[in-house]
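Researcher: For the annotation table, I need structure tokens for Uracil phosphoribosyltransferase homolog. Please keep the output clean. Sequence:
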Amino acid sequence: MIVSNIYEILISSGTGNTIIKAVNVLKEHNVQEENIILSNLFSTPMATKCVLTTFPQLKMLTSEIHQIAPNHFGQKYFGTD
């Protein structure tokens, strides 16, 4: 359920493409951009720039911005390696 007058938290990793699509869906449901918080463990500089340029009012929390996103984390965490 999307509620437009509260904060929405997105949790994601990888490229910014999925986040851009998800934020657009939230905005289509009248969620204010400044009420969206993106939380991810890792981000690349390109994905960070892409998301924050597209949505400058979005808040982003990440543990690390690094050239190479550690894809192995999800494999280890979910036991799919």
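Researcher: And a one-line annotation?
Model: The radius of gyration is 13 Å.
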